[in-house]
User: What shape does this take?
Amino acid sequence: VERGGEDAVFTLSKPDLSALGVADGVGGWAEDGIDAAAYSRGFMRACQEAIESTDGSEGVLPGLEPAAIVPWH
Assistant: This one.
């Protein structure tokens, strides 16, 4: 079975904040019925949206908390 394309990336540039996110999808998860591509892309989308919603004054980590609880599947 050929697999690939499980990875995802985002870049964000705001006047006061820049961010780069990389998710390395775990292709082996397919054996457990998990779509690694959907998971990594959904996670990066949630991270980007969370960071976009912050002003950056407290860093980006507080902004990422909502991304950790988003259901990606």
Remarks:
- The first helix runs from residue 36 to 52.
- The CA atoms of residues 16 and 56 lie 7 Å apart.
- DSSP finds two helices and two strands in the chain.
